[in-house]
Write a structure and sequence with these properties.
Layout lengths: L1 H13 L8 H14 L4 E8 L5 E7 L12 E5 L7 H17 L4 H9 L1 E5 L4 H9 L20 E4 L10 E5 L5 E3 L7 E3 L10 E5 L1 E4 L41 H12 L3 E9 L3 E4 L11 H18 L3 E3 H5 L11 H5 L7 E6 L2 H4 L15 H15 L4 E9 L3 E8 L1 H5 L7 H16 L5 E12 L2 E10 L9 H5 L6 E6 L2 E4 L3 E5 L22 E9 L5 E8 L3 E8 L5
Parallel strand pairs: 3-4, 3-11, 11-14, 12-13
Antiparallel strand pairs: 1-2, 2-4, 5-10, 6-9, 6-16, 7-8, 12-14, 15-16, 17-18, 18-22, 19-21, 19-23, 20-22, 23-24
Length: 569
């Protein structure tokens, strides 16, 4: 225990949470943590990216209670999108926090003793590395180089003046939609429907134009891909779903995640970190709430309430509240696959919300409407205070090869909007990791409540077992898992003696958790499912012989108990 406490001290001293790390920095930190906690932490590669970087996976569990595969599993991932750097920082914080708190925090110790935690701290290391060292606003996963390779024709992102930022271009145009604010000349506001006679601008992303026609430049969607549209659930090809890839799992990073989830059937809860919005997203991506199972909706609402309590983030439906055009539901996302197909309760947390930080009241969580003039000024004030010159590029003249005289400037979106300033990073990490711990501890947890032995004849005994679920979630997790027939029932088995009657391995069915017992029994309410079940065997053995009974649940873990065949038992 003294060695473990020494390792705790070293980890707390060595790992800082106030910067965004390169791939090499992240890798060396993960290796150092694994070396400090070899009994709790395993580091493995799920494969390599297009550019040869390892996709790291961390497995955290203690030797207490058996190996990771015999315990309920909880999954965290981060940075599937290149520019979402705060997510990787939060995943790394989760690794550090769980390791450094083991043995001192009762909840963390319970979690690692009874369960396994799987963390993929950077799914998209190629894109993240490119984004850290280049000004591009969106990088994909490296299959296409940001810039000219992204589009065959039209405007593509490019650092026109070489200042290290890609922001906006404004072009004088009497038909333009924008004018300069009277409150702050850095701000552009939209013309009113009947407004005429002023100085107006057209606004474009900073970039160059392939095959310019001389008319309005067309801004084409880049070909960089969106790894979170490359999963099997509800997948549709492009152009029906932007960024879908050639087929589900066509990209090495998403394929690595698919294989990992399938290779770890004990996973019974998931949280994928994204930025930004300061909101917890719950499934589904293609369903209204009224189409969800009431039991599934209840468990998501209960788990989400814990998330709001710990993070302050509201919880909303991906489809109802986070999809601006309901005719174009998100397809091929990780949550579409893991919940809607596999029945695993999953959240996607959009870390950080600069609007809330700036004191701007949110009226919607995903919309394309421009903020009011006063809100833009208010937001810029916050950016000035917390980001300084890294958050806003003052408007300045430049010469565009096709458009002529333009001005470049605006908010540096990938930092000032999408990620918290480094001095605010640790608080974001901490609160969201606490939610993950709460979610993980809601997992089903099977145990052997009772074993009894009764002698019925010479060298003949009846062994009776009661298996139970002590977790919040049922062993099938969700109704979706039952509907799709992917939920495996709990089994009980016996070894160490000859079985005369009863199957060696017996099905106990699915064992309910606390989730469906939210109020005292009512014949008009939801009917309760059993939380316990019994198995029985007639066995032949000698007095004092030891047999082992096992209760096994794919999601709720595996427990074993040895018992002696005694006539007085």
């Amino acid at each position: 225990m003294r060695d473990m406490e020494q390792a705790h001290h070293l980890a707390r001293h060595d790992v800082s949470h106030d910067r965004y790390r390169s791939y090499d920095d992240l890798t060396s930190t993960l290796r150092a943590l694994q070396a400090s906690y070899p009994e709790l932490c395993a580091l493995s590669s799920l494969g390599t990216t297009l550019q040869g970087r390892d996709i790291w996976a961390v497995t955290l569990t203690s030797p207490v209670g058996g190996v990771a595969a015999d315990k309920p599993g909880y999954y965290i991932d981060a940075q599937i999108h290149a520019e979402e750097h705060a997510t990787s920082a939060t995943a790394l914080y989760a690794v550090w926090y769980l390791l450094s708190s083991y043995g001192t925090s009762e909840r963390v110790t319970q979690l690692l003793d009874q369960q396994a935690v799987y963390i993929l701290p950077r799914i998209n290391p190629d894109g993240a590395e490119y984004d850290l060292h280049h000004p591009y606003r969106w990088c994909g996963n490296g299959r296409y180089t940001p810039g000219a390779d992204e589009v065959e024709t039209g405007l593509y992102q490019h650092d026109l003046d070489g200042d290290g930022f890609i922001v906006q271009m404004r072009v004088l145009d009497p038909d333009g939609e924008w004018r300069i604010s009277e409150l702050d000349p850095r701000v552009l506001v939209q013309r009113t429907p009947g407004e005429h006679g002023g100085t107006y601008y057209r606004l474009y992303p900073e970039g160059l134009i392939q095959d310019h026609s001389g008319l309005d430049p067309v801004v084409q969607p880049p070909r960089d891909g969106n790894l979170n549209r490359n999963f099997p659930g509800n997948w549709q090809p492009e152009p029906a779903q932007y960024g879908a890839g050639a087929y589900p799992g066509s990209e090495p990073e998403s394929l690595a995640v698919i294989r990992f989830v399938l290779d770890h059937p004990n996973i019974c809860g998931m949280n994928a970190f994204h930025t930004h919005g300061g909101v917890i997203l719950r499934p589904s991506s293609t369903l209204y709430d009224r189409e969800m199972s009431p039991r599934d909706l209840t468990l998501f609402q209960d788990l989400a309430a814990a998330g709001t309590r710990l993070t302050g983030y509201p919880v909303i439906s991906i489809y109802e509240d986070f999809t601006p055009d309901k005719s174009k539901a998100r397809r091929g996302s990780l949550s579409s696959w893991t919940y809607e197909e596999l029945g695993i309760p999953m959240f996607s947390t959009e870390l950080w919300d600069v609007e809330t930080e700036a004191g701007i009241q949110k009226t919607a969580f995903y919309n394309l409407k421009t903020k009011t003039e006063a809100q833009q000024v208010q937001l810029l004030g916050w950016i000035d205070e917390h980001w300084g010159s890294e958050g806003f590029v003052p408007w300045h003249p430049a010469e565009h090869p096709d458009l002529g005289a333009v001005e470049l400037g605006g908010v540096v979106e990938k930092w000032a909007l999408r990620n918290p300033p480094p001095h605010r990073l640790e608080g974001v990490c901490h609160d969201n990791v606490l939610f993950c711990i709460e979610h993980a501890l809601s997992s089903p947890r099977v145990y052997i409540q009772q074993v009894a032995v009764q002698a019925v004849a010479e060298n003949t005994f009846i062994v009776r077992l009661v298996g139970a679920n002590g977790g919040y979630l049922p062993t099938n997790l969700t109704d979706v898992a039952l509907e799709h027939q992917v939920a495996k029932p709990v089994t009980a088995s016996i070894s160490g003696a000859e079985v005369l009657m009863g199957q060696v391995s017996q099905t106990l069915g699915h064992l309910a958790g606390r989730t469906e017992r939210k109020y005292p029994y009512s014949q008009w309410g939801q009917q309760w499912s059993p939380t316990r079940a019994r198995a029985e065997w007639l066995v032949r053995g000698v007095e004092g012989q030891e047999v082992t009974v096992t209760v096994q649940s794919e999601k709720g873990g595996t427990v074993r108990k040895a018992v002696a065949l005694l006539s007085s038992s």
